Automatic annotation (TrEMBL):
<dbReference type="InterPro" id="IPR000182">
    <property type="entry name" value="GNAT_dom"/>
</dbReference>
<keyword id="KW-0012">Acyltransferase</keyword>
<dbReference type="Pfam" id="PF13302">
    <property type="entry name" value="Acetyltransf_3"/>
</dbReference>
<feature type="domain" description="N-acetyltransferase">
    <location>
        <begin position="11"/>
        <end position="174"/>
    </location>
</feature>
<dbReference type="GO" id="GO:0008999">
    <property type="term" value="F:protein-N-terminal-alanine acetyltransferase activity"/>
</dbReference>
<dbReference type="GO" id="GO:0005737">
    <property type="term" value="C:cytoplasm"/>
</dbReference>
<keyword id="KW-0808">Transferase</keyword>
<dbReference type="InterPro" id="IPR016181">
    <property type="entry name" value="Acyl_CoA_acyltransferase"/>
</dbReference>
<protein>
    <submittedName>
        <fullName>Ribosomal N-acetyltransferase YdaF</fullName>
        <ecNumber>2.3.1.-</ecNumber>
    </submittedName>
</protein>
<dbReference type="InterPro" id="IPR051531">
    <property type="entry name" value="N-acetyltransferase"/>
</dbReference>
Length: 192
């Protein structure tokens, strides 16, 4: 598996390198971003460099794949989208994403997720994409439902952030469901 950059109408999804560390830090040091991300807010740029190293390691070991989200018109790094818990043998992964708050409500996350789902199902041949989200993260829950993800249940006290346990909701999308939604979309009646 080689790192494949992806493209949408407004975005480039690229491999993240150390030269993106300050931009990544700027995003992940904001409590409003990490509140629902499952990690503590970063406190040093070096933390972002270590995170980038972990993205690279996960990719090399075929356990994950993380793209930087870049605006085509300005070249600005505005977030990440990617796969955690990747298992090519079992044809599954978990999707995750975060966007700088300055770019919220512009549908950039939806645009990036749509392309990553296409890549996962149509090129990687995955069968299942899951997502974990905090119960209070209404925006993420709505985004997942928009793409046909179904809520499977709750994992009690699954995430421990800021010295507090939090339940996580589990969502999933199966390749056959994705294919049906793509077919409906090509007929003009859906969102994929």
């Amino acid at each position: 598996m080689w790192f494949k950059e992806l493209e949408t109408e407004r975005l480039r999804l690229i491999e993240i390198g150390h030269h993106h560390a300050e931009s990544l830090f700027e995003i992940l040091s904001k409590d409003e971003v990490t509140k629902y991300d499952g990690i503590e807010s970063l406190t040093r740029v070096e933390d972002a460099r270590r995170l980038i190293d972990s993205f690279k390691s996960a990719y090399i070991n075929k356990r994950g794949l993380r793209w930087g989200v870049i605006l085509k018109d300005s070249g600005k790094f505005i977030g990440t989208v990617g796969l955690n818990q990747l298992s090519l043998a079992n044809k599954r992964a978990e999707i995750g994403y975060e966007i700088h708050p300055e770019y919220w409500r512009n549908h950039f996350t939806s645009e990036a997720v749509k392309e990553v789902l296409r890549y996962c199902f149509e090129e990687l041949g995955l069968n299942r994409i899951a997502a974990l989200t905090f119960k209070d993260n209404i925006a993420s829950r709505n985004l997942l439902k928009k793409f046909g993800f179904k809520e499977e249940g709750s994992l009690r006290s699954y995430l421990f952030i800021r010295d507090q346990p939090h339940d996580a909701l589990v969502f999933s999308l199966i390749s056959t469901e994705y294919s049906q939604l793509r077919q409906q979309s090509s007929q003009g009646s859906n969102r994929l």
